[in-house]
Design goal:
It comes from Mycobacterium alsense. The chain has helices at about 15-30, 50-65, 80-95, 115-135, 150-160, 170-195, 215-220, 230-235, 250-260, 280-284, and strands spanning about 10, 30-35, 70-75, 100, 145-150, 200-205, 275. Strand 2 (about 30-35), helix 2 (about 50-65) and strand 3 form a beta-alpha-beta unit. The chain has one domain (about 10-280): Rossmann fold, CATH 3.40.50.720. By secondary structure, it is an alpha/beta fold. The chain is built from ten helices and seven strands. Helix content is about 45%, strand content about 15%. The chain is globular, with a radius of gyration of 18 Å.
Length: about 280
């Protein structure tokens, strides 16, 4: 316990899924947490996103650890709103030590309009850039930045267009390119911030057991042979993604890595592309 004792951490997309898991784990290890989430659905994303009640529940879960939670409804696409909300939260918390740029969506479907591409890209990449750029003025030597990419995006880039690898449709294409850009952006930013002793690393998970994975459009991607596939249908093909014989990893598996990168245990680790993928990249 106490691996990030008394640090102040910003987590975006904190209302549920990976973001909530990261926020709670960091609080359990001694951090106070600033929690941002959009708390409403986004057009063309055909599974429901977290709501205001989810953010409230996540805040209470952090507070049960005995640490402080500062929660706000913020859209990472809106840099001005993000800047104002973070400035207020940092003034309240007193400092900012760690940023976990986690917020993301994955709209899927073969017949989506171009808006699905732009929304996915704007949330998944522009949202990361906005988050980090408004956070930078608050960070000092010893700070840590963690971005969240995707093994699916990396595999799609390796396989190339037309390979069938990765999410489908305009939204899937926007998701893939956003996650690829996150990887390159993180490496570039790490090089810029290393002389300031601010670390920047990216985590690339495989399928994670969250609502982003458990919805019919995602099941359909793994079972295109069925009109309305369910979880049991997708479980037959989910393991094809990984080298290890598992359908997905748990949010905690990613949170362990986030905690390490947020802690002083990794004080000389920067520019790391950490794949938590059960051997997916090895397989493909």
């Amino acid at each position: 316990m106490g691996r990030v004792q008394d640090k102040v951490v910003l987590v975006t997309g904190a209302a549920r899924g990976q973001g909530r898991s990261h926020a709670v784990r960091l609080a359990e290890e001694g951090a106070d947490v600033i929690m941002f989430d959009v708390c409403h659905d986004i057009e063309h994303n055909d599974y429901p996103l977290a709501g205001e009640h989810d953010l409230d529940d996540a805040r209470r879960e952090v507070e049960k650890t005995g640490r402080r939670a500062i929660a706000a409804q913020v859209d990472v696409r809106d840099r001005a709103a993000l800047e104002a909300a973070l400035a207020s939260a940092v003034a309240d918390a007193g400092k900012l030590d760690v940023v976990v740029a986690n917020a993301g969506i994955c709209p899927l479907g073969a017949d989506q309009p171009i808006g699905a591409f732009t929304n996915a890209f704007d949330v998944d990449f522009v949202g990361v850039v906005n988050t980090l750029h408004v956070a930078l003025p608050h960070l000092t030597a010893g700070a840590s930045i963690v971005t969240v990419g995707s093994v699916a995006g990396l595999l799609a880039e390796k396989a190339g267009p037309g390979s069938g690898m990765g999410p489908n449709g305009a939204g899937g294409a926007g998701y893939n390119v956003a996650k690829q850009f996150i990887d390159r952006y993180t490496m570039a930013l790490a090089a810029q911030l290393a002389p300031l002793s601010i670390r920047v690393n990216v985590i690339h998970p495989t399928n994670v057991n969250t609502p982003m994975l458990h919805n019919e459009p995602m099941y359909k991607m793994f079972r295109p042979d069925l009109e309305h596939p369910g979880l049991d249908d997708a479980l037959l093909t989910f393991p094809m993604m990984q080298g290890m014989p598992i359908p997905f990893i748990e949010p905690d598996d990613v949170s362990h890595a986030v905690c390490y990168l947020a802690s002083d245990e990794s004080r000389y680790v920067t520019g790391l592309q950490l794949k938590i993928d059960a051997g997916a990249c090895l397989k493909f």
